[in-house]
Design a protein that fits this description.
The chain is mainly alpha-helical and 427 residues long. It is built from 17 helices and 4 strands. The chain is 65% helix and 3% strand. The longest helix has 30 residues. It starts with a strand and ends in a 14-residue tail after the last helix. The relative contact order is 0.13.
Length: 427
């Protein structure tokens, strides 16, 4: 609704002055163009942090063969494209002050310092350091759109998630035997491992549940229910424990944040508690079988061989310089085996400085959530940071350009004051 201003003109009486509709059109059109570019920028960032392998997780060729060089061009070339597109969306190079982005910039500086004396992988370290710098620069250029009340970046992320999850479902429909090989759901059109599928499904499911709890999805109840059920089914089919625990913890803390203000949160928590109690009694055997995934007690104790790799990372020879700043950004592997822990990987790559910066990023977002007023944005940010804290123990990524760092940046963007809503976006 447009406002009216009453003016008193001599000899002409009182007249209502209304702003011209045509005068509003340029700003609205500019905002629509900017939104489309932000969707594209976020989609390219999402594509860049997707991994590409020659074949699928189960060692078979993709259903639609994609040459290796084309797949690498698509993923690696998407980041420079995102940076250039962000420049076109933010031509005046406006940035919003941000403690989170400043910490990310310090992380880039630590990567540059550690890359001075890399441990036998100079080319890879140089590439990963430049990639992290481009990634952070793109986030700086997107900072004028942080804190929007319409949750623009959340919508961008959900769109990208459901595009990828849709490709997994299509592969499941075309080749169910291959997609469920070894009893775990994976991507057959694009090489997506079960762990990645579970991460995408858990984040999408958590964001949708929190949005529903906050009453943001009332206009699309059927589509919301279908999306929630599909994401939940995909998460169960991946047989991944860490993401499931992280999802439950994230929704629990986000719900407790809104417990006093949202009646549907109180009803959901009551019903869920009763259902969990009944399921624990009636289906305890099936739940235990699903959680163990056929592993013996030794495999469960050493976290499927992870503890041996972590011990090797801690015992690796290093001088004082490498203790402080690490060996330089690597492929997050040790002796050909994945490290599978953000904290050990950060220590291996960036030393104690990297561990401290990763911890600072998480703590900044977590503490900021509790100093913000209760809102949908705060609940979403609290879900994301809780989810990332839990997964950081068995997944890597917070010390490098990755999906986890992109999701942490999304959480930080939700906690920025929405001052930008009062003026047009930069063109």
């Amino acid at each position: 609704m447009t406002s009216s201003v009453i003016t008193d003109q001599p000899h002409r009486g009182i007249r209502l002055l209304r702003p011209s509709v045509r005068a509003l059109e340029p700003d609205q059109a500019r905002d629509r163009r900017a939104r489309r570019r932000i969707y594209l920028v976020w989609g390219l960032l999402f594509l860049n942090v997707l991994t590409f392998y020659k074949g699928t997780w189960n060692g078979l060729p993709l259903l639609i063969p994609i040459p290796s060089f084309i797949g690498k061009i698509l993923t690696q070339g998407s980041l420079p494209g995102a940076l250039l597109l962000a420049v076109t969306a933010n031509r005046r190079m406006l940035i919003r002050p941000s403690v989170f982005l400043s910490l990310l910039t310090l992380l880039v500086g630590a990567a540059v310092i550690s890359g001075v004396d890399p441990a036998g992988h100079f080319v890879g370290t140089l590439y990963r350091t430049c990639r992290l710098g481009e990634f952070v620069a793109t986030l700086w250029l997107l900072s004028p759109w942080w804190g929007r009340r319409d949750l623009l970046l959340v919508k961008c992320h959900l769109t990208a998630l459901f595009v990828v999850l849709g490709s997994v479902l299509l592969g499941l429909a075309l080749a169910p035997g291959r997609a469920l090989d070894q009893g775990r759901l994976s991507g057959e059109l694009w090489p997506i491992t079960p762990v990645q599928v579970s991460d995408f499904a858990a984040v999408a499911l958590g964001l949708l549940v929190v949005l529903w709890l906050c009453g943001e999805l009332r206009d699309r109840p059927r589509a919301t229910l279908f999306a929630i059920l599909a994401a939940a089914a995909m998460l169960v089919l991946t047989h991944t424990r860490t993401e499931l625990v992280a999802l439950v913890a994230g929704i629990l803390l986000a719900g407790l944040r809104m417990f006093a203000t949202q009646a549907r949160v109180r009803r959901l928590f009551t019903c869920t508690g009763v259902l969990i109690l009944l399921a624990a009694v009636a289906f305890s055997g099936a739940l235990t079988t699903w959680l163990t995934r056929g592993e013996n007690s030794k495999e469960l104790t050493d976290l499927t061989g992870r503890t041996a790799v972590w011990a090797g990372v801690l015992n690796a020879p290093r001088d004082r310089f490498q203790v402080i700043v690490g060996y330089g950004l690597s492929d997050k592997g040790y002796n050909g085996l994945p490290i599978d822990s953000n904290w050990f990987a950060a220590y291996y790559d960036l030393g104690l400085v990297g561990v401290a910066l990763c911890l600072s990023l998480l703590l900044f977002v977590l503490v900021s959530c509790y100093f913000q007023p209760r809102s949908t944005a705060t609940a979403l940010a609290l879900f994301l940071v809780t989810y990332l804290i839990v997964t950081s123990f068995t997944e890597t990524g917070l010390s490098d350009a990755s999906m986890y760092l992109l999701e942490l940046a999304l959480a930080a963007s939700l906690l920025v004051p929405s001052a930008g809503e009062r003026r047009p976006m930069p063109s």
